Amino acid sequence: MSQLSWGSRLRSAIADRGRLCVGIDPHPSLLRAWGLPETAGGVETFAEICVEAFVGDVALVKPQVAFFEAYGSAGYAVLERTISVVRAAGTLVIADAKRGDIGSTMAAYSQAWLGEDTPLASDAVTVSPYLGFGALEPAVELATEHGRGLFVLARTSNPEGGRLQGARLLGGQLDAADLSGVSAGESVSVAQSIVDAAVAQNRDGLDTVGLVVGATRGHGLDLSEFSGPILAPGLGAQGATVADLAEIFRDSRELLLPNTSRDVLRHGPSVSALREAAERVRDDVENGLA
Ligand SMILES: O=C(O)c1cc(=O)[nH]c(=O)n1[C@@H]1O[C@H](COP(=O)(O)O)[C@@H](O)[C@H]1O
Fold it and tell me: Domain Orotidine 5'-phosphate decarboxylase, which positions (predicted)?
């Protein structure tokens, strides 16, 4: 391995600039509110303003790939430039691409988002385990090799996720590779099986595999064995507060990374107003979780 582990890189970034992850989500409604055209050019100006406001002030930013993808290759070109400028300035980038596939296709997605020098290479990427946790193996391998991270959807912030992620399954009956640590016959939720698989994967101590657990409601998960990073979206626009974070994640705070997007972005397009909003939330989070 050529460099520090993802866990070490995150710890050092958090120590320097706090644990808040600010989203770069160029929603059409935000483009309009900022007086920008709904074009790739508008997205580019939006992203440039975000970069100026957030880089150096927060530890992590998370571009939402969908809002760039909406403009096709021109949007992707903006995303490539945004990722590379932010990373060059030493701020960590989580690409919110929610990728998940099988075999060589998953390997190709992994190269795209976690490769050494690929155009979209980021520090971490969000992935979906719902084609089987084991199908994420190419991404785990590449991330480990390059000191990068994955954030695996476990219990998402949206209300629709509950039926699937909360469904009970019998340990060992679906895919033994997904359920290490769960004894046969023991009933766990689908989301808990993802947590357990992540615990098993992180036994190497590198914390490559993080989880996505929404801050919008009690997650009902046993996170006591999980010491890796947790991306917690839902702060602000989806209704979660810092007090909710403190309550919901009371036992798993070391690498907790709360995410907020619209609640900060609504303060644009003024760079200083955006920066102040991000700093306010960053400091509230630090104080609330102290
Ligand atoms: O993976 C994510 O980041 C994510 C997972 C989840 O469970 N819920 C969730 O809202 N997100 C993302 O986090 C961001 C939240 O944005 P705001 O609701 O504007 O703060 C969006 O980019 C969502 O796609």
Answer: 19-277
238 pocket-lining for ligand 1 (C-beta < 6 Å): yes
Question: Active site includes 62?
Answer: no
Question: Is the ipTM above a cut-off of 0.90?
Answer: yes
Any ligand 1 atom below 6 A from CB of 237: yes
Closest approach atom of ligand 1 to CA 260: 20
Residue extents of the structural domains in the chain:
6-289
SS (HEC) of the chain? CCCCCHHHHHHHHHHHHCCCEEEECCCHHHHHHCCCCCCHHHHHHHHHHHHHHHECCECEEEEEHHHHHCCHHHHHHHHHHHHHHHHHCCCEEEEEEEECCCHHHHHHHHHHHHCCCCCCCCCEEEECCCCCHHHHHHHHHHHHHHCCEEEEEEECCCHHHHHHHCCEEECCCCCHHHCCCCCCCCEEEHHHHHHHHHHHHHHHCCCCEEEEECCCCCCCCCCCCCCCCEEEECECCCCECHHHHHHHCCCCCCCEEEEECHHHHCCCCCHHHHHHHHHHHHHHHHHHHC
User: Over the stretch 72-110, which tens digit does the pLDDT of each residue have?
Assistant: 999 999 999 999 999 999 999 999 999 999 999 999 999
Q: Which atom of ligand 1 is nearest to the CA of 94?
A: 3
Using most ligand atoms within 8 A of CB, pick from 259, 265, 266 the residue to mutate for ligand 1: 259
Q: Which of 98, 217, 266, 267 is catalytic?
A: 98
